[in-house]
Amino acid sequence: MYSGAIHPVKWQMNVYPERTDFLNKLAFFRIFIIVKMAVVFFLQLTIFERCHRGNWTDETNIKWELLIKKQAAKYRQTALRLEGLLIKLGQFLSTRADVMPKAFLDELEDLIDRVPAVPWEEAQTVMEQEWNAPVESVAAEIDRQPVASASIGQVYKARLYTGELIAVKVQRPDIDRIIAVDFKAVRIVMKLAKRFTKFGKQTDMLALYREMTSVIGAELDFRRELENGLYFKKRYESFSDVDIPGYNRDYSTKKVLVMDWVEAARITDISFLERNGIDRQDLAVRLTNMFLEQLLQEGKFHADPHPGNILVKADGTIVLIDFGMTGRVPNEDAVHIRTLIEGILIEDYDQVIKGLEGLRFLLPHADKERMKRVIRAMIDAYTAQSFMQLDDFAIGQLLDEVQQIVKKEPVQLPAEFAFLGRAVSTFIGLLHILDPNIDLMEVGRKPVMDWLGKHAGKTSPKQILVQSLRPLLSFPQKFLSVLDEPRLFREQRDAQQKRNEAERDVLKGRRDALLFMAVTFPGVAAVPFVHHEAIVYGGPVLFMLSVFFYIRAIRAHKRFIA
């Protein structure tokens, strides 16, 4: 949501679906539509994956992209129709440029800062109720066309009688009731995800739901956003290239927020950046420094850093706005984050595991040696890209190992980190829009090293020096890894051969059991017509035994395809 913009957004209401009608405001109807959409998505993805398991080709990938595009289009249409909470969830998905398919991003692009606006008369009513006075008594001038409209509020440009230009953010009518209803629907969806999806089984969905209601629910009270904005303005007052707009306490209420008008454009407005000679790579580096300051220090962080909330002035100054959704990094978690990052930098993977345990990502009975091996391989794979390209076999083995850990190891996503993870992933997506070739390890190295220097952790100056020479010092390790590759390949090949042989034995047993069922079934069918004791008692017993062995063989085979 903008507090300012170079050009007002031109609204063409015929481009979007009509505003929600009476039916869309009914609680039962909204819940039904949201849950039905989620169930259909779950079924489509599950069926597709099962149908193409073990047979994923280029043609399959094209079909998968088409399915994702279809689902994204359906989600966008439903979100623009119902508005409310679906808009905020869609905004998050639309910024995942680092991992989401381009087709998905294109479909959900309209959900960022381009939500259909409510008529001026409705917004005016909210302002006058909150101010307990006519709009004209507060603002000398106010544009009736909003410059931005989002899921919870919309922004108008105005001028006070003192001559100051201001941005007036007004809450959408009845949005608090709509959000409450949508949360009920999301709760149902989360229960279904807990029961039927891998992600749901690995996450405390109830705790995540509580965190979501707390963080997003706080956005419905603009007085909290006011306090958050003042907090970040003080926090960044020493940053010469970061600006936070000022806020007006006198005219800010629970449903109306008044702040200084800022002439700026969305940070992903590439044409604006080029027109003003702003270097995109330098902007990405400065943006990373700003975000790491929030991530590494205890205190509040901006939990919704999508492109509509990060602006840039013509001189390159970064403007951060919309602090309705914030999270907090407790001091004890900041210590564990430092431990984790130090371990990665000095290649001490025992320390990395210790940091993950402290952050509650690993449960006590996790296979720590296996975790260390995979983390080391992932980091080496990333840092080795400039040294040598990994072949498809090595990448496939690494990804398979990661999948096995996620599936079998006691790895969890603590609910309190859900919004921190969301903020990080959203921010990384934004960086990839600015600089598709950005090297996050290299860009983040200096601010992280500066941060480590200011905080007395386990990292000594000697270790920092070792880290600066890491590419050279790690050469023998990588060289030995290359020499050791044939042995690892043989071990993996032998393990795969044993697995294939075991699977063939299971399939053979299932085939034999099925054949035995076919042979013994006539004996069961003949029981009513014969009186021979061997057939009367023996036929059904043999048939039931064959059914038992067949079911056991099916279950055994599922272990190979799970």
UniProtKB/TrEMBL annotation:
Q: Which Pfam families match?
A: ABC1
User: Which Gene Ontology MF annotations are present?
Assistant: ATP binding; protein kinase activity
Residue intervals passing through the bilayer: 27-48, 513-530, 536-554
List UniProt keywords, sorted A-Z.
Membrane, Transmembrane, Transmembrane helix
| Entry keyword Transmembrane helix | yes
Whether Transmembrane counts among this entry's keywords is yes
The chain positions of domain Protein kinase read 141-480
* Family indicated by similarity: Belongs to the protein kinase superfamily. ADCK protein kinase family.
PANTHER family the UniProt entry points to: CHAPERONE-ACTIVITY OF BC1 COMPLEX CABC1 -RELATED, PROTEIN ACTIVITY OF BC1 COMPLEX KINASE 7, CHLOROPLASTIC
| Name recorded for this polypeptide | Protein kinase domain-containing protein
Q: What is the lineage of its organism?
A: Bacteria, Bacillati, Bacillota, Bacilli, Bacillales
